[in-house]
Design a protein that fits this description.
By secondary structure, the protein is mostly beta strands. The chain has three domains: 101 residues, no CATH class; 142 residues, no CATH class; 191 residues, no CATH class. 3% of the residues lie in helices and 43% in strands. The protein starts with 7 loop residues before the first strand and ends with a strand.
Length: 484
């Protein structure tokens, strides 16, 4: 079966709605009802320790300790600004990190310098962190932070390939939270090395928690930082979890459900949420705007069974697509569904075309740049309108994008050249993550984060065979190249 990847829109500007636009946080809060409105839900959120959250059995705790990351430099010849202490190690690590700034326009960015030493000398292990907490570029007048001998379990990342992982004592920095004024944030740091590439992550040790009741549904609402420190909590990308009290394991897991911007279906009604900059109050109200139809179609192919499940993302919100019923936190597959009107791009979609299962996501690569997709504007090409359905049928002409090597890449004779190609729909800027034959199920063994090997059944992946030749046709290399 030959498939072309893309989509078809039955109405280019159906409904007469405007194209993708910039929407600031204040506008979003106004739209969903932060201002005094009928049916508005207001919930107090109090501060709790992310480590206590883990001890209470909340499996979402790791989402709050991902941290804002910076790479560390062991290059001795590089000159770093500032004043540094005398190091015991011949290979101290140095770096810097910038907090604040956009999207918190009222909190200007500020760069802090750091160094990590081995107090027992070279080779004894990195255990002393110098961090310029007062921002004067003098690391000798700030008390060093020592490595924790017994760090909280949730603070350690469960990666089996990690070569080094050290957590240091926590400290506090003060940030501008707009209407809430300047507020201290307690921060913990984690040094981690993977393939000899050390990096330091900073994460907040506190999250916000409160109880929500909507109809017969009762939830614990959890709100906090993820990849940024010093950013007010009213931003759309803030980590936000609705954890059902009846079964904490039965939480929404679809891609995008863990953000404040997400639109949740509760009791047959869509709800949207917002919060204050400090995160001490949560606001929510039913979505009463227009809905449109998102549908998967065979695209003229002789296929009877088609379905889709996953999620879409707009500039304002993320929404699940599929059947109203949830299974393991994901919507069940469906041929069509109703979602709020808007311009979207895929977050993660799984489509079924007869015996084929196709997985699609946004394309995060760029030409010659693995994971360099952030350098170009997002494409919100799935335009949901009120009066006609949007048909997603994979009929656009696909293209092959080489994330590696870059066009001008040069390698010396005998050196290795890595080739990474992905199948994309350039019109929608989406990438094929998987193509599986559902009629053939195979046993697959993987190594888990705890080091144990687990075997499970999965459909056979139809990974393409790639052949590389010289200009004269001589074959240089060939092999199977996985999707994504």
């Amino acid at each position: 079966m030959l498939l072309a990847f893309g989509c078809k829109e039955e109405s280019e500007q159906a409904g007469g709605l405007e194209q993708t636009r910039e929407v600031d946080t204040n506008q979003m809060k106004k739209e969903i009802g932060v201002e005094e409105q009928e049916n508005q839900l207001v919930v107090d959120l109090h501060e709790v320790s992310v480590f206590d959250l883990s001890d209470e059995g909340y499996e979402v705790s790791p989402y709050f300790v991902r941290g804002q990351m910076t790479f560390c430099d062991a290059e001795r010849a590089r000159v770093w600004p500032g004043t540094y202490p005398r190091f015991e190690s011949r290979e101290p690590l140095r770096g810097s990190i910038t907090f604040g700034g956009k999207p918190a326009a009222h909190s200007p960015p500020r760069t802090y310098y750091l160094a990590i030493d081995e107090s027992g000398g070279t080779g004894t292990g990195y255990d002393r962190l110098y961090f310029d907490r007062n921002g004067d570029r003098d690391l000798t007048n700030d008390k060093p932070l020592m490595a924790l001998k017994d760090p909280p379990r949730v603070a350690l990342l469960p990666y089996s390939s990690t070569e080094l992982q050290v957590c240091f004592e926590s400290f506090k920095l003060t940030f501008d939270f707009g209407s809430a004024g300047r507020q201290p944030v307690e921060i913990m740091t984690r040094l981690i090395a993977h393939e000899r590439n050390p990096r330091l992550t900073f994460f907040a040790t506190k999250v916000r928690k409160g109880a929500i009741e909507i109809g017969d549904a009762k939830y614990d609402a959890l709100l906090g930082h993820a990849y940024s420190i010093g950013i007010p909590l009213d931003q759309r990308g803030t980590v936000f979890h609705l954890v059902p009290k009846r079964d904490p394991q039965d939480r929404p897991r679809w891609s995008g459900a863990d953000q404040l911007r997400s639109t949740h279906a509760i009791g047959g009604q869509y709800y949207r949420f917002a919060t204050t900059p400090l995160g001490d109050k949560l606001f929510g109200r039913p979505y009463d705007g227009p809905l449109g139809t998102f549908e998967v179609g065979p695209g003229g192919r002789d296929i009877q069974e088609v379905s889709i499940q996953g999620s879409l993302l707009s500039e304002e919100t993320a929404v699940a697509v599929g059947d109203d019923g949830m299974e393991d936190g994901w919507p069940k597959p469906a041929k069509s569904c109703r979602v709020p009107v808007g311009d979207y791009r895929p977050v993660f979609l799984r489509l079924t075309f007869g015996r084929l299962s196709i997985t699609i996501s946004g394309n995060y690569h760029a030409d010659g740049k693995p994971r360099g997709g952030g350098s170009r504007p997002d494409v919100y090409g799935i335009r949901i309108r009120q009066d006609k359905p949007y048909i997603f049928d994979l009929t656009n002409k696909p293209d092959v994008l080489f994330a590696s090597p870059a066009k001008d890449k040069r390698v010396k004779l005998g050196n290795e050249l890595r080739v990474k190609a992905v199948l994309v729909d350039p019109e929608l800027d989406v990438m094929v993550r998987g193509l599986d034959d559902m009629t053939h199920v195979e046993n697959t063994t993987v190594k888990m984060a705890d080091g144990q090997e687990r075997t499970f059944k999965r459909a056979r992946s139809l990974d393409p065979k790639v052949v590389i030749t010289r200009a004269d046709g001589e074959k240089v290399a060939e092999g199977v190249m996985p999707f994504g």
